[in-house]
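Bench notes, afternoon.
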Amino acid sequence: HVLRGKARQVVRVYVLCVFDAKAPVALAVAFGNVEENIQQVANSAIADCVHHDLQSRRIGIADPLSNLGNFLDQQAALIRRIIEVYERRYDDVAQAISTELGAPLAFAKRSQTGLGSGHMKTMLEVLPAYPFVEDRGSMRLVREPVGVCGLITPWNWPINQVACKVLPALAAGCTMVLKPSEVSPLSAMIWAKVME
């Protein structure tokens, strides 16, 4: 939980579903509307993530399209599980967004946090019909994960942007590195715990 008035120190980088405490530099996060420091987070660079790239590739899906039906079922099941955990953490996400943006809690809950759930549910609708494999005359077009996706999100709609970037990459079987804004990382930290 984010405690207003008390700064917490969290110096971790979320990598491969575990927190890695090797990031040496901390960055203060200010309470959105009063510039009061509420927490410290890891201030990482892309170089901090490069070390984990090869390991990420090794644990990725070897050939997700060799059995497309099974792959789509697995990805849909994963997204349904993420929705379930996200909805349990809904109030925590709303509170984090309200804190980091300085937005009214009702707005953070209704508009900001609700978009995360909406994008997840939309991905469940879109995924089965997405043309991963498409025959075009005498050729076959195959859309497949080809590497690590670098995802950078802005500060002002944090969960909306995280969901809009992470969900398609996840649905396609891509490995990801998510870099949320340094001024609104709290909701992304909860997202990381949801993904775990």
